[in-house]
């Protein structure tokens, strides 16, 4: 356990080292890096708690069969619609979407729908669309939104087709054994 | 904008937690334990992403990004915009006003659209996080496809905006 904990933090230590090197070479720049990182961490801690709580509650209360029925391999158009809506009404940066994707995978949501959900979260959030319209105009925002919609669906479909069954199993596997 | 949706999330989470607690204490405990566990397991890649983000903001301030894109014209600017969008992680509420300013400074519609599209769909910085869940192959392909597709987005948006005008 100890060893694996250290290993999972290895990337973080490497980056911390890089930041310290920057600090050594250029104190003002290094200070800026650490200040920004600290701000980012605070922001993350202010945004993510409700998402994790919701994920935990969802996990404890929503039965797997229900989820599979609505969002599983055979859920069809309705499942895709739900996955899109889940992402589009979300809040928060993309990194907050991954824990949600994890619980979806564990509950038996099809990979295709998980990709649709992530794609919608990254580029089809409704609040973002409104903000984009304010800044860049309706034609720009709406045409980009429409293109995002087509792109998100196409990429999810393609990945689903393109990956071999055993590769998809390998992705799902770690989440099923809990 | 983002604050309101976060607030809604808090209200949702806390009210559900409240009802859950009255309904079934044991299950609520289990839910919270699960929430904590998924938080702890994702913390290392989270921290990596946040630090890369901080480094890129410090080493590539907005002004630098603006120079790259504002002067970029034609296909080279298009290419630059896509690469900058793919590697940086600028949140939307910063990116849109920035794109607006750049447009006023003479950057092209297509460049801005490809920049925003790659910004949102291609995540070089979030790559380690994504790999953890979907493996190297799927993650590489998803990002590669999203990158290529963004060029189409840029062209289409440019076409539409010009048509409306």
Could you explain how this protein is built, in words?
The complex is a heterodimer of chains A (178) and B (165). Chain A is an all-alpha fold. Chain A has helices at residues 2-8, 10-25, 27-61, 64-71, 76-88, 97-106, 111-123, 126-136, 138-162, 165-176. Chain B is an all-alpha fold and 165 residues long. Chains A and B meet through helix 2, helix 3, helix 6, helix 7 and helix 8 of A and helix 1, helix 2, helix 5, helix 6 and helix 7 of B.
Radius of gyration of chain B: 20 Å
Quaternary organization:
heterodimer
Q: State the distance separating the first and last CA atoms of chain A.
A: 17 Å
The number of helices of chain B is 7
Q: H/E order of the elements of chain B?
A: HHHHHHH
Helix share bin of chain A: over 70%
Low-pLDDT segments of chain B: none
Number of helices of chain A: 10
How many runs of DSSP E, i.e. beta strands of chain B?
0
Strand content of chain A: under 5%
What structural category arises from helix and sheet content of chain B?
mainly alpha
Which two chains have the most extensive interface, and how many residues on each? A-B, 75 and 81 residues
- Mean pLDDT over all positions of chain B: 86
* Number of beta-strand segments of chain A: 0
Amount of helix of chain B: over 70%
Q: Main beta sheet of chain A, described?
A: none
Rg from alpha-carbon coordinates of chain A = 20 Å
**Based on CA inertia axes, which overall geometry of chain A fits?**
globular
Q: What fraction strand of chain B?
A: under 5%
* Biggest beta sheet attributes of chain B: none
Order of helices and strands of chain A: HHHHHHHHHH
Quick summary:
The complex is a heterodimer of chains A (178) and B (165). Chain A has 178 residues and is mainly α. Helix content of chain A is 84%, strand content 0%.
What is the secondary structure topology, with strand pairs?
The complex is a heterodimer of chains A (178) and B (165).
Chain A: H1 2-8, H2 10-25, H3 27-61, H4 64-71, H5 76-88, H6 97-106, H7 111-123, H8 126-136, H9 138-162, H10 165-176
Helix pairs in contact in A: 2-3, 5-7, 6-7, 7-9, 8-9
Chain B: H1 2-23, H2 25-59, H3 62-71, H4 74-87, H5 92-104, H6 109-121, H7 127-164
Helix pairs in contact in B: 1-2, 3-4, 4-6, 5-6, 6-7
């Amino acid at each position: 356990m100890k060893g694996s904990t250290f290993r999972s933090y290895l990337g973080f230590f490497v980056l911390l080292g890089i930041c310290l090197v920057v600090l050594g070479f250029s104190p003002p720049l290094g200070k800026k890096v650490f200040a920004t990182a600290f701000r980012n961490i605070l922001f993350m801690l202010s945004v993510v708690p409700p998402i994790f709580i919701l994920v935990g509650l969802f996990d404890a209360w929503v039965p797997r069969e229900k989820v599979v029925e609505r969002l599983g391999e055979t859920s069809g158009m309705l499942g895709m619609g739900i996955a899109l809506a889940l992402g589009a009404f979300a809040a928060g940066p993309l990194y907050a979407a991954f824990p949600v994707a994890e619980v979806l995978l564990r509950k038996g949501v099809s990979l295709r729908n998980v990709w649709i959900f992530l794609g919608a979260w990254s580029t089809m959030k409704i609040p973002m669309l409104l903000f984009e319209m304010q800044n860049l105009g309706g034609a720009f925002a709406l045409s980009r939104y429409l293109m995002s919609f087509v792109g998100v669906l196409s990429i999810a479909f393609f990945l689903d087709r393109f990956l071999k069954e055993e590769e998809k199993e390998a992705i799902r596997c770690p989440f099923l054994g809990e | 904008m983002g604050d309101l949706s976060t607030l809604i999330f808090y209200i949702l989470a806390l009210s559900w937690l409240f009802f859950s607690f009255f309904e079934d204490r044991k299950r609520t405990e289990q839910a919270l334990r699960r929430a904590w566990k998924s938080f702890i397991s994702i913390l290392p890649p989270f921290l990596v992403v946040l630090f890369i983000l901080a480094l890129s903001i410090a080493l590539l301030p907005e002004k630098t990004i603006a120079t790259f894109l504002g002067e970029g014209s034609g296909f080279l600017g298009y290419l630059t915009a896509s690469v900058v969008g793919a590697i940086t992680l600028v949140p939307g509420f910063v990116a849109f006003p920035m794109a607006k300013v750049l447009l006023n400074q003479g950057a092209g519609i297509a460049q801005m659209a490809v920049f925003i599209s790659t910004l949102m769909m291609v995540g070089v910085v979030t790559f380690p996080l994504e790999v953890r869940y979907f493996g190297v192959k799927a993650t590489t392909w998803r990002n590669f496809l999203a990158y290529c597709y963004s060029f189409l987005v840029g062209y289409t948006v440019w076409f539409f905006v010009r048509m409306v005008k």
